[in-house]
Design brief:
The complex is a heterodimer of chains A (about 375) and B (about 350).
Chain A (H helix, E strand, L loop, with lengths): L9 H17 L16 H9 L18 H14 L7 H14 L2 H12 L5 E4 L15 E5 L2 E8 L10 E7 L12 E7 L5 E6 L8 E12 L3 E2 L5 H11 L11 H10 L7 H29 L5 H26 L10 H12 L10 H12 L1
Parallel strand pairs in A: 1-4
Antiparallel strand pairs in A: 2-3, 3-7, 4-5, 5-8, 6-7
Helix pairs in contact in A: 1-3, 4-5, 4-6, 7-9, 7-10, 8-9, 9-11
Chain B lengths: L2 H17 L2 H6 L7 H9 L18 H13 L6 H15 L8 E3 L7 E5 L5 E11 L6 E8 L2 E8 L4 E3 L9 E11 L4 E3 L6 H33 L1 E2 L2 E2 L4 H26 L7 H26 L9 H12 L6 H15 L1 H9 L6
Parallel strand pairs in B: 1-4
Antiparallel strand pairs in B: 2-3, 3-7, 4-5, 5-8, 6-7, 9-10
Helix pairs in contact in B: 1-3, 1-4, 4-5, 4-6, 4-7, 5-6, 6-7, 6-8, 6-9, 7-8, 8-9, 8-10
């Protein structure tokens, strides 16, 4: 295990102070905190954040980015998430697609997409899940067929976040038929324009009534050769490394933090009961320790290490914590919650109750993560 | 961990590998004490790590002491290492009292303890009854905090003149009740306590020491469980291949790593003394980790974990005791929560994200 306790340098701490000042100026006093990275979609906010250099931090300057470290990205991300800032528009492109394009994209693709991602203007969705492919991603049925100058793609993707507002998505598909015993071969990633002919986007109504997820049907969608992401046939390796990038950041343990903060705010000026104090203290302590693990992974990435097992452990323990926090506060508050009514705390609690089951599903279920981690522990 | 800490822990681990095998720990249960191990540790200067060299200690800081205690926890060392330097040695050195030869322990200041110091130079007298003193009867001296006329004093009470009611914790480590009935004390055994040497500071150090012991024991619990489930075959394959068992391995690894980092951060921030927020958070995290990981480890081991000969039980029984000593996870969580609630909603995140360094 490579988790090592680490501290932030004075430069990293002053970056934190800058982000806090920015948030204090940009978020209205009555702003309703978003829960997690997908909590609120606000392109204006994304562009303002990008203007400060805090989107595309991992992208080198020659592609319009900022060439910052993983720890610096960590600091910015945790400040945004703790404040409940509306980062839903750019977050997936920033966290996931940018690094993937940087590693696997062609020079032309990097020049075409990375400056827009870093400017907070180009938004990506993920095109992995299908009606019959969840955790078993290699079983995807979306198929691309070779045609003159490119590929035509046919199939259906589901749980595509913000496809109705984003610009592109990276589609995992079969470019050659599955062979017996080699199910990871023959997969590729294609960048598909969400506004292309043959793309039909329909909402998947979410448990809380929001429109966030979509089904995206692709019917003979033409994808030119220059939109093939990485190598034809290397889709599996690319996707699995992409999942490793996104596993262990603050978005995996801070999603419900605003609920805790508002619980504390609601109790201000009143005597704190013993069981309420215990819940606050134990949640804060656990968040503090999980943060130490998560930060340690960022530091290891900057040192050129590949802490894949550690990242899986952080996501497994972090996302369960996000859910435990909700139940602990519900227990302490002894209230009945409805959507959209009551105090800010009650509203956030209701939102968290309805949406938090997804935290241990998205980006790799708890069960898949345990299996990944256990193999590394043996 | 600093280079100094690393060297220290390597030497200590080497010594314990030789003198504190699982068989040694089982053999020490009759008395709760290993003379051979203590002598070797004392000769190497380990008991007084974190006590300044100028006053006869071994030097180093709180982080060094915690790194050493993690090693002691890993080996289930049946000696009062946590009590000697971090607690008793600290108080004695700060008050300018002599560091005794032989093991030294401390009274935690438990509810129901009585400590009455009277008289003055040349005529000090002690009447006291203190409970659950770790290795109390085995120690040459026990450090007590006492007030005389509103002034706090550090007392280095000789155990030779104390009445002893022996006691044991769940792991058969001595937790003795000691009583002194109007006993005269030499002037060399009493000194005014300097600022910062008080029951709260003692409790913080005690809790941090227990957290460090727990973190070391959990590392070993994790290793044992991975090894055993990889060897144990049922239904024709190692049980570690079953997803249900893998879930236990992952839980133990997570809790062990959370505990280890919590202690490292809290110890590193102790400059020179441990701070409330760090210790409270670390004690809350390690207490929970001890509970959750011990349960998962026993479940993954099956019946073998319940035999006294097997190493897991030596560790889990200590975890079940250590998590409650100097305050349970619930007690520390409650106190931490009270202070955080008092500081207000907008102070919550800044404290978590700065490692809770400052109060």
């Amino acid at each position: 295990m490579q988790f090592g306790a680490t501290t932030l340098t004075p430069a990293e701490e002053s970056l934190r102070a800058e982000v806090r000042d920015f948030l204090a100026a940009e978020l209205p006093a009555d702003h309703r905190p978003a829960l997690g990275f997908a909590g609120r979609y606000d392109p204006d906010f994304s562009r303002k954040l990008a203007a400060r250099g805090w989107v595309g931090m991992a992208i080198p300057p020659e592609y319009g980015g900022h060439g910052r470290s993983a720890v610096e990205r960590f600091v910015v991300a945790e400040e945004l998430l703790a404040a409940g800032a509306p980062i839903g528009a750019h977050f997936v492109a920033d966290r996931q697609t940018g690094p993937t394009l940087l590693h696997f994209g062609t020079e032309e693709q990097r020049r075409r997409f990375l400056p827009g991602i870093a400017a907070g203007e180009i938004y990506f969705s993920l095109g992995m899940s299908e009606p019959d492919s969840g955790s078993d991603l290699a079983s995807v049925r979306t198929r691309a067929t070779r045609v003159d100058g490119g590929w035509t793609v046919t199939g259906t993707k589901v749980w595509t976040s913000e496809a109705h507002r984003n610009h592109f998505f990276a589609v995992l598909c079969r470019t050659s038929p599955m062979e017996e015993g080699r199910k990871h071969a023959g997969l590729s990633q294609l960048i598909v324009d969400l506004h292309a002919d043959g793309v039909t986007i329909s909402p998947i109504p979410y448990l809380d009534g929001s429109h966030h997820f979509n089904e995206v049907a692709l019917e003979d969608v033409f994808v030119p050769d220059d939109m093939v992401l990485g190598e034809i046939g290397s889709g599996w390796q690319q996707v699995t490394s992409e999942l490793a990038y996104e596993r262990s950041g603050p978005d995996r343990w801070l999603s419900t933090f605003p609920v805790l903060r508002e619980f504390v705010r609601e109790g201000a000026g009143k005597a704190v009961a013993d069981d309420e104090a215990t819940v606050i203290g134990r949640l804060a302590a656990r968040a503090w320790a999980i943060r130490a693990l998560s930060l340690s992974v960022a530091r290891a990435l900057d040192a050129g290490e590949v802490p894949a097992i550690e990242a899986a452990l952080v996501k497994e323990v972090g996302t369960r914590f996000e859910q435990d926090l909700v139940e602990a506060l519900r227990g302490a508050a002894e209230t009945e919650v409805d959507q959209g009514t009551g105090t800010l705390f009650q509203q956030l609690l209701a939102e968290a109750v309805l949406t938090s089951p997804s935290y241990t599903l998205r980006g790799g279920t708890t069960e898949i993560l345990r299996s990944v981690a256990a193999k590394g522990l043996a | 961990m600093s280079e100094h800490s690393t060297m220290l822990t390597e030497v200590a681990a080497g010594l314990m590998r030789d003198l504190c095998t699982p068989e040694d720990v089982v053999a020490a249960e009759a008395t709760g004490w290993s003379d051979r191990l203590w002598s070797a540790l004392a000769e190497a200067g380990f008991p007084y790590v974190s006590v300044p060299e100028e006053v006869g200690g071994s030097g180093g800081d709180v982080a060094d002491a915690c790194a050493l205690l993690a090693v002691a926890g890993r080996f289930a060392a049946p000696v009062p290492l946590a009590e000697s330097g971090l607690l008793a040695g600290w108080a004695l050195a700060a008050a300018g009292l002599e560091l005794p030869e032989g093991p030294v322990s401390v009274a935690a200041g438990r509810p129901g303890d009585v400590v009455e110091l009277s008289g003055g130079p040349g005529r000090w007298r002690l009447t006291a009854r203190v409970q659950r003193v770790p290795w109390g009867a085995r120690s040459t001296r026990v450090v007590l905090l006492a007030s005389v006329g509103g002034e706090r004093h550090v007392v280095s009470a000789p155990t030779a003149v104390a009445q002893v009611e022996p006691g044991r914790n769940l792991a058969a480590e001595p937790r003795d009740t000691l009583a002194w009935d109007d006993v005269p004390l030499a002037d060399e055994a009493v000194a005014a306590a300097p600022a910062g040497v008080d029951p709260d500071a003692l409790r913080l150090r005690g809790a941090l020491g227990r957290a460090a012991l727990i973190s070391g024991a959990l590392q070993r619990v994790a290793e044992l469980t991975v090894r055993y489930t990889g060897e144990r075959q049922q239904f024709g394959r190692p049980v570690a291949r079953f997803q249900a068992v893998q879930a236990h391995l992952v839980t133990i690894a997570e809790e062990a790593e959370l505990a280890r980092l919590a202690v490292e951060v809290a110890a590193r921030n102790a400059r020179p003394d441990p701070g409330f927020f760090d210790v409270a958070a670390a004690a809350s995290v390690t207490g929970e980790a001890a509970t959750v990981a011990a349960r998962a480890a026993h479940q993954a081991h099956g019946a073998i974990g319940m035999t006294k000969e097997y190493e897991l039980g030596q560790l889990s029984r200590r975890l079940w005791s250590w998590r409650d000593e100097f305050g349970s996870e619930r007690a520390w969580g409650r106190e931490l929560g009270r202070r955080l609630a008092g500081a207000g909603a907008d102070e919550l995140w800044p404290r978590i994200s700065t490692g809770l360094v400052s109060a």
